[in-house]
Amino acid sequence: MDTVAALTRLVQYLAVSAVGGSSLFFWYGHRPGESRWPRRLVRVAAAMGVLGVVGWLMNKAAEFGTGPADAGDPAQVWAVAWDTPFGRAAVARAGLLAVALAVSLAPRPTPRRWIVLGALGLAASATFAWTGHGATDDGWAGVVHLGADVLHLLAATIWIGALLGLSGLLIELRRRGDGSVASLAAEALNNFSRIGVAVVAVIAGTGLVNSWFLVGPGGAASLPTTPYGQLLIVKLALFLAMLGLAAANRYRHTPRLEVPAQAAPGLRAVVRSVMAETLAAGAVLLLVAWLGTLAPPAHA
Length: 300
Ligand code: HEM
Known about the structure:
Elements lengths: L1 H27 L8 H28 L9 H10 L1 H20 L6 H16 L12 H38 L4 H34 L1 H4 L7 H31 L5 H29 L9
Helix pairs in contact: 1-2, 1-5, 1-6, 1-10, 2-3, 2-4, 3-4, 4-5, 5-6, 6-7, 6-10, 7-9, 9-10
The structure holds protoporphyrin IX containing FE.
């Protein structure tokens, strides 16, 4: 059941990243014009996200019931969905993604529609704070932890959504291969890097707050000896690797795109680097989905 919980959570994290972060990228980073893949990406992600929530709730019903058979019992699933705070948060997430699916069916998305889709995806992302370890403290500590987790989720959604949008754009530009691809790629990368530093700063700061509540100063030393701690360490290593790749994109590869003689090798280097950063981001989400099923040191 933990594996199903982690996998359905991963599907939902990826879905809100595409609906929230990629939609915003199609507004501030690169306007898709006639390309169809951005709409398809957001539609499929919204639908997968709703299915991910249903699968997660069914698994919870089995967990709280007598076993896997309860996953198919509508009364059990209904009870989990409506009688628990995390169930209601998950239903809100499914509702927001269902509305996003409806909005994404419009034939020709305008910049305003990408903003609406982005807002729906970010709101869906924020609901995770009520279905995981973010909602485990009381009083003022609870407010601070929950607030930090919401900001952590929003920043993560914006970063990973932009990477998905950038990856799709670079694949399209590589296929197109005409003279404009280098300048279009440079423009999109520069547009993202304008918000990149702020996004990374929020993620690092709120990640430390999360760690304070879930690991604590007393739990830091034991991190290498517990499954939770080992996963968190791998996550931090991936975060540092993503920072390195992002810095290489910004300071090394993107400037080459603006020099005609270096544009072609520059584009190859950018594609490799952005794909590696996107894969690392996917691995971070898998680790986070898994971390959500384990007891953090502060609760052990
Ligand atoms: C690529 C950068 C990162 C991404 C995409 C990311 C993403 C996430 C996501 C999606 C969650 C789940 C929140 C929830 O469902 O409530 C999370 C939780 C968490 N993050 Fe990050 N994060 C990143 C970097 C960091 C950093 C740098 C730190 C520490 C300094 C950190 C510490 C944590 C902790 C402690 C949790 C709680 C895990 C749990 O027990 O559920 N994260 N992160």
